[in-house]
Structure formats: C-alpha cells, structure tokens
Task: inverse folding
C-alpha cells in the first residue's frame, strides 16, 4: 500500500464555479464578477480553493484507498490561483500507515503547466 | 480585528450532496447510495466533508475578513459525520495576525445539536 499513487483530472469550468458558489454560499466576487476580478491581484476570475481541493476527496474516495475511506483530516496549502478553464490533476500518494488501517496520504493538485496549485496531506481511515 | 467572529448556517440537503458529487467527481456510495450507507458504520448517507467545509470558505469570503480574502491554508479535522438534513453552522474567529495582513483564523463547523463536526484553522491574506 505504501508508495501507491492515483490521480484524477478535470477542467474547472465557469459553470462549475457558479454551481459551487450556490452550494457553498461562497459568493466572493473574485470567483463570479469579471470586472471585480480584473482589478484584483489575479487579473481574472479564479476558482474556489475548496472546489479544486474537492478533487482530492474524489481520488481518495473513488480510487485510493477507495470506497470505504473515511476522512479524518485534510490540510491544504494554496500555492497558486486556479483560473476558469484550467485543467487540474489531483494526485494522492500513500505515505505511511500511522496506525492499523489509518494512512497519512500526500495530496497535491497541479495545473496543465505542471505547477502545484495545492499541496498538503490527508489522514484517512480505510473502513 | 483579533477576537472577531462570524458565522453562516445552512441545511445540507440531499440535492446539495448530489450536486456536489457531480462537481467534485466524488461518487463514494456512502454519500449517494442508501443501501450501501445503511451497511456502513454510519448507518445512513453522509455529506461530503469538503461540502461541509466549504461553508468555512463562505464565511471567510463573505463576512470575515470578507471580500478580498485570499486563502493561503486550510486545515480540517473531521470529527463527526454530517447527515443529510443536518443544519450546519460554520464559525470563524480571527486568532492572530501572523504578519501584516495575514491572519490565522480558527474555523469550526457544528451541527444542530451543537456537536463539532469539523474543526481546524485557516491562514488568510486580507488583500
């Protein structure tokens, strides 16, 4: 199990960001208002960090360790903005078994240029 | 600024969980399949941790520190499951100014019984 990796890739669309704003109630104009975003440090609209990070949850739940995974902890460091239309790959790697059936897992998201946009780790119990 | 608090409350519905599964690609049957969930340790379907946690992002972006907040870090400890129909309150509290305009913020989500379902902290740059 240790050293195993899995990943998932998704393009983050404008529609995704709008739906996520509705679900999360996070209506920061940096995600939704082109004019506001143009005047920001980013220069254009960016995706919600939690929307991007949720791809980590998808890899863990769907692939590694897979169904039956129970989330105990997630730490995310947001390193770079994700713009609408960016193709994000979330990758996880099993780092160690902290105690029986509880794993520390490296988690990172990269964009289409290979730049890390989120890194961090998760602690998962494999049920 | 230090010691200031803000919160937001939302009922997590079955429709929310289904939409979040589509957006995040996290199709763990513990969120979507009643029969599967009944046989799990939880006994019924639970919400995605990232969906619940995204309410923290909403409080930060909409209220405190508010628009212009830039996420640098989020740590989440998942303490208890959130069931469909649970009313979740996400609360943030400004703990300290780590460096100019960069704040460490306590973040927690509680359910309608007052039980903590997620705790942790965020680091936010106020642009």
Result:
């Amino acid at each position: 199990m240790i050293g195993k990796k899995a990943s998932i890739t998704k393009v983050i669309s404008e529609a995704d960001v709008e739906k996520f704003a509705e679900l999360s109630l996070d209506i920061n104009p940096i995600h939704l208002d082109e004019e506001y975003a143009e005047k920001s440090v980013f220069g254009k609209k960016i995706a919600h960090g939690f929307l991007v990070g949720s791809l980590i949850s998808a890899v863990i739940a769907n692939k590694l360790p897979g169904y039956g995974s129970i989330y105990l902890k997630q730490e995310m460091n947001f390193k770079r903005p994700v713009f609408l239309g960016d193709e994000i790959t979330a990758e996880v790697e099993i780092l160690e078994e902290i105690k029986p059936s509880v794993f520390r897992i490296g988690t990172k998201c990269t964009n289409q240029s290979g730049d890390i946009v989120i890194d961090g780790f998760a602690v998962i119990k494999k049920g």
Notes: Chain A has four helices and five strands. Chain A has a mean pLDDT of 97. The beta strands of chain A are 5-11, 69-78, 87-99, 102-110, 116-126.
